[in-house]
Amino acid sequence: MVADEVRDALESGAPVVGLETTLIAHGFPAPDGVAVGVASEEAVRAVGAIPATTGVLDGRIRVGLTELELERFGPNARKLGPRDLAACAVAGDVGATTVGGLLTVARSTGIAFIGTGGIGGVHRGYPSPPDVSADLLALVTSPVVVTCSGAKSLLDIPATMEYLESLGIPILGFCTDTLPLFYSDTGGPPVPQRIEDTVTAARIAQAHWRLGGCGLLLANPPRESIDVEELIEEALVEAHARGVRGQQVTPFVLAFLHERSGGRTLEVNRRLIVDNARLAAEVAVAFAAL
């Protein structure tokens, strides 16, 4: 079910930005997630684009949500990757989209721009367990620009970069020569292409898609940078000791970081998500004007 506002924008070629709901349900302690979701939508509108926050409610995949509907995405909502969307809808459960799930919906609706915090990738310890996020495979089949602050901080970043190269997924560094490490703007591997403005990002996306290309990543460094590598290592050890596995690792690590950093990671996370939504909207507006 696509909201009237989103449908009208897509049909007229107006800029639309997809936003996930997992960050609302699992990225922040309630009710902070809803506030971040609302702020992200406001940032998109301020630039001149239409927000399309996406999740599953009442047996339907919903593209475009009201604030009251956003409040229904609590910690008990299911995390929805590409495999889970249909099953969750049929079951009638509340489901919060990950980047991979949102990419699947974006492909089917024609949404070409997404703003998020960070993408999934190759988990530390690969290939034991053989854990690679569905976000990467969804990018291969979805002609969408994903604006993010690099990959999630608990991942194996060099391995993720290698995987992205193997899949042919372009990575553009927005005013940066290296991939941001989510909470940190430095220390990541070099990006293949640095760009300085949103018009260039839009033109590269257009040229890439004319060649039949897949999704692209636009890496946007966080405005405030903090080093939490030691805390991440502690969080992963603790997760392993408690038997936390699969989709539960990310929310566990985020909660651990927020607590042990005295809330600093929470604030950086909040700001970068809204900034990435805004940047995605700016690229969408530039693309619409080409």
Topology:
Layout: H1 4-12, E1 16-19, H2 22-26, H3 32-47, E2 50-57, E3 60-63, H4 67-70, E4 78-80, H5 85-91, E5 95-97, H6 99-109, E6 113-115, H7 134-141, E7 145-148, H8 157-167, E8 171-174, E9 193-195, H9 198-210, E10 216-219, H10 229-241, H11 249-260, H12 264-288
Parallel strand pairs: 1-2, 1-6, 4-5, 6-7, 7-10, 8-9, 8-10
Antiparallel strand pairs: 2-3, 2-5
Helix pairs in contact: 3-12, 6-7, 9-12, 10-11
CATH class: Alpha Beta
Q: If helices are DSSP runs of H or I spanning 4 or more residues, what is the number of helices?
A: 12
CATH superfamily: Indigoidine synthase domain
Query: How many domain modules?
Result: 1
> Termini, distance in Å?
29 Å
Q: Over all CA atoms, what is the radius of gyration?
A: 17 Å
Shape label: globular
Largest sheet properties: 10 strands, mixed
CATH topology: Indigoidine synthase fold
* Overall strand count: 10
The CATH architecture can be given as 3-Layer(aba) Sandwich
Q: What structural class do the secondary elements suggest?
A: alpha/beta
Unreliable stretches (pLDDT < 50, length at least 5) are: none
List the secondary-structure elements in sequence, H or E.
HEHHEEHEHEHEHEHEEHEHHH
Strand % is 5-15%
